[in-house]
Inverse folding.
C-alpha cells in the first residue's frame, strides 16, 4: 500500500444561532490519499483494495481519536467515505469501504453496533464529499444525524483513492428535532 498523504481536519463549533455551545461540538475527519493499484484496468478480484480498507480503518480511526484527544468510548458518531480518481471505478470505493474498513473502525472504538453510514464517488482532484454521520450504537438517534464535508485540494489524482472516516464527540449543536434521544436509547440499554 502506497500512501501519498494523510490529512486531519478538526471542526469545533463554539456558537450556533447566537447561542454558546458548551462544551463545543467537535467533528474530525481523518483522510488518507493512497495509490490505487487497480487504476486503469478491470480486475475481477478486489482483495487488494479490501486489505487497504482494513488497514486504513485502523490507521485513520486511531488518528482521528488522537486528533480529538478523547478516549475511544467518548466518540458519539461515525461515518466513512471514499473518492476514487478518474482512472478507477466506483466499485473500487465499495471494496475499500465495505468488507473490512468498518470492522476495523469498530475494533479500535471497541463499540459501534449501528451500520456505519457511507458515501462514495469517482471524481477529479479537489472533489468534495459529504461523510454522513449518525450515532455509533443506534442509527435512529436523531440528535446525531449529521455530515462532514471534506476535500483535499490535490486529491485524488487519477490513479489514487481518497479514503476518509469522520467522528464526533457529541450530537449536533443545539439539536432539538423530536425523536429518539441518546439518553432514551441508553436507558433502554
Amino acid at each position: 500500500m502506497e500512501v501519498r498523504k494523510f490529512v486531519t481536519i478538526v471542526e469545533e463549533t463554539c456558537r450556533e444561532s447566537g447561542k454558546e455551545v458548551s462544551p463545543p461540538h467537535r467533528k474530525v475527519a481523518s483522510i488518507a490519499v493512497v495509490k490505487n493499484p487497480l487504476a486503469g484496468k478491470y480486475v475481477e478480484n478486489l482483495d487488494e483494495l479490501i486489505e487497504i480498507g482494513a488497514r486504513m480503518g485502523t490507521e485513520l480511526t486511531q488518528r482521528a481519536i488522537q486528533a480529538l484527544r478523547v478516549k475511544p468510548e467518548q466518540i458519539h458518531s461515525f461515518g466513512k467515505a471514499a473518492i476514487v480518481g478518474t482512472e478507477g471505478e466506483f466499485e473500487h470505493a465499495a471494496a475499500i469501504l465495505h468488507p473490512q474498513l468498518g470492522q476495523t473502525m469498530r475494533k479500535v472504538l471497541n463499540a459501534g453496533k449501528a451500520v456505519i453510514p457511507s458515501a462514495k464517488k469517482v471524481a477529479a482532484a479537489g472533489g468534495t464529499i459529504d461523510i454522513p454521520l449518525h450515532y455509533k450504537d443506534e442509527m435512529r438517534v436523531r440528535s446525531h444525524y449529521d455530515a462532514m464535508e471534506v476535500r483535499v485540494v490535490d486529491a485524488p489524482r487519477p490513479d489514487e483513492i481518497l479514503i476518509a472516516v469522520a467522528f464526533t464527540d457529541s450530537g449536533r449543536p443545539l439539536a432539538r428535532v423530536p425523536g429518539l434521544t441518546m439518553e432514551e436509547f441508553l436507558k433502554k440499554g
About this structure: Strands lie at 3-16, 19-35, 77-84, 118-122, 128-135, 146-151, 160-168. The chain has three helices and seven strands.
